[in-house]
Predict the structure.
Amino acid sequence: MNLMNRFLYYGVILPISSLPFPLLYGLSNFTYLILYKLIGYRKKVVLGNIQRSFPNMTHKEHMEICNKFYSHFCDLVLESLKTFTISEKQVLKRVVCKNPELINKYFDQKRSVIIAGGHLANWEIFAVAVDALIKHKTIGIYKPLSNKYFDEKMRKTRSKYGLYMISTKIVKQVYEEEKNNYTATIFAIDQSPSNPNNCHWMTFLNQDTGVLFGTEKFAKEYNQPVLYGRINKEKRGYYSFEFFETFDQPKDTKEGEITELVTKLLEKDIIAAPQYWLWSHKRWKHKRPEGK
């Protein structure tokens, strides 16, 4: 197994990653034809998610979003492979922060913050770029891969320009270790919870949706301001991100208030550019439990 992992990494991933961007996008175009037109990778999941999220659209409109999603998804996959070899200079040429002053003011106030965001546009290149573009020490929370070899490679890639990657299993431990530093901890808010009874339930994209409660939990426990982070795809291969203030004093909020607001902000962005969200994710695996 280890030999196969090494072959895939050194014989496939790194050669693809080393391609110049024009060739990379040529490969993305070819991948789109294979993945979408020929194989139909997760097409039933993608189309079903889109149809339930936009019930008032026509089938033609659903298919248009589906088609654009797969085109973007192939770019995302190839751009994610590119992060294994991309230089910091290339990253900062392709990713900009529109309003760093909004988050940097909290650093100047000696306050740590939480950044809440979703799987929109390209979160992989955002992860590689973010630490160089803001003053805080950035922390990214992730769920470890079952393949330990590629888990290590992925962590090294995402963290090579400053992001501190931590497992979901040690978030509390790291919070305690870093409580005297000025950190910006990134929480993904659109993943499906493993336990439908241990999450916040709300309507999201016209569907009953269980939302992870970690953002709100840690924001209130440590009273860290919550910023919503939006990633924009400006054009092929170029991204920007910007911050929006939500709650300056989370400890004063009502139960579910933080979770509801940041999720609704993400929903608004998905509706504005649906082709850039991760529709292939099985987001609605659980039904709302009785009493929730």
The longest strand covers residues 226-235. The longest helix spans residues 59-82.
